[in-house]
Amino acid sequence: MLVPCLLRRLSLACLMSLAALGAGASPLNVVTEELPPYNMIENGQITGLCTDLVQAALEEAGVDGYFEMLPWARAYDLAQHVDNVLIYSMSRTPERERLFQWVGNLVSVRWYLYAHTERPVKLHNLAEGRAHQVATVNQDSGEQYLQAHGFTLGQNLQSSARYALNYEKLKRGHVDLWISDELNAYSVVRQAGDDPQRVLMPVLEIPDLGHDAFSLAASPGTPVQTVEKLRQALERLHQNGTYDAIVKKWF
Question: With CB atoms 3.0 to 4.6 Å apart as the test, which of 32, 97, 121, 188 could cross-link to 115 if both were Cys?
Fold first, then answer.
């Protein structure tokens, strides 16, 4: 009786191990938003500086993933509530710290409130900005930051699903200000056929947001071992020169 019992236990252990391996082999759902030049669609493909970095980290870690471009609010919700989800490019703010497992920083950024040069705005501090209409993206770090500092959706914040819509609002005079990181603002303006040096006026830098690099994060239900493999892979990209090569390609 001892041998059959032992065999049954071993068989069960093997099945459990195989199931665990199978679960670990499942590809991750990698979600992002339209945020050029970091993440964007070109010729039907998801590309961009941060996309290339995330793809390289996945390859270095030996982890499979399939990419999806979604509105930011949808991607943000998935990454909080669905297992095996990666999300980028996301600012690592205090409000978000406990909501995700953080893999690592991708790129450093500088955030500004921008006005159009045809309609200049002068601000001495952020509080004065509450007297103006500001374009934001739904649930992005800029919008969350302004809400935490006394701005209100529907009053002085006009929320959109995409950054390109915010520049259109600024260009047409529907808003006074637009909150964005510098590279994204310049990229969006160029895609619209305009020269950012001629049309954008940086009114006020937001250093609190600038301290937070755009990062790669995982949903709470993503296996800790997978997150650690990706952390180590991202570190190796810096060490072996791959990170610098990818950044150089985009700039």
Answer: 121
Residue 42's DSSP bridge partners are 45
Question: pTM for the complete prediction?
Answer: 0.72
Residue 232 in any domain: the answer is yes
Looking at the fold, whether 87 and 149 belong to one and the same domain comes out as no
| Same domain, residue pair 96 and 160 | no
26 near 63, Cβ under 8 Å?
A: no
pLDDT digits (tens, 9 = 90+) for 226-251: 999 999 999 999 999 999 999 888 87
Residue 13 belongs to some domain of the structure? no
Tell me how far apart the alpha carbons of residues 60 and 62 are, in angstroms, rounded to a whole number.
6
Q: Tell me how far apart the alpha carbons of residues 194 and 200 are, in angstroms, rounded to a whole number.
A: 10
Model pLDDT for residues 115-161, shown as the tens digit of each residue: 999 999 999 999 999 999 999 999 898 999 999 999 999 999 999 98
CA distances from 181 to 23, 125, 204 (A): 37, 18, 12
Domain range for 233 is 28-108+212-250
